[in-house]
Design goal:
7 helices; about 160 residues; about 0% strand; mainly alpha
């Protein structure tokens, strides 16, 4: 008994033709994407950006979570380029380390909406971080109220982004 040749089946021939058309379409799409990618400006972080971020993350004013994240980067677990590309953002340690920067951006947005100049908000040369405001001593409600009423002291008396 002979086995029929499946390639002679019209359904198989049509499926093979569909597959070939799909492969050609995929090749064209890949080629177009590569051409488009070449016209796009390079994104991500420059080496200078990474060096500035690392310097800040290792600094004494960096929050402990950011220093821990920098240690993970130093250990090769991840990189600043990974984070800039959106990878590891679901990691609790990454989220905790970047949370201060998010708060700083919220404060900057509020100040922009209030009409502050950009120069008042941003201090050039370092990545954004939120300023830790000193907590008033307990039992001194009078000072708390005075501090809240002082419009010049809304953001720690200086730039909120360092």
């Amino acid at each position: 008994m002979t086995v029929p040749d499946p390639s002679t089946d019209p359904r198989i021939q049509e499926a093979m033709a569909d597959l070939e058309r799909a492969e050609l379409s995929l090749d064209r799409a890949i080629s177009e994407a590569e051409q488009l990618q070449q016209t796009m400006p390079p994104g991500g972080l420059s080496q200078e950006d990474i060096e500035q971020i690392e310097e800040h993350a290792r600094g004494r004013n960096a929050p402990p979570e950011l220093r821990e994240l920098q240690q993970r980067i130093d250990d090769g677990e991840l990189s600043w380029s990974d984070l800039a590309a959106g990878r590891f953002l679901d990691d609790p340690g990454v989220r905790a380390a970047l949370e201060g920067g998010v708060e700083g951006m919220r404060q900057a947005h509020t100040m922009l909406q209030e009409g502050h100049d950009l120069d008042e908000i941003i201090e050039p040369g370092a990545p954004p971080v939120a300023i830790d405001r000193p907590q008033p001593e307990r039992g001194n409600e009078r000072d708390d109220a005075a501090e809240e009423d002082d419009p010049d002291d809304d953001f720690g008396g200086g730039s909120i982004l360092r």
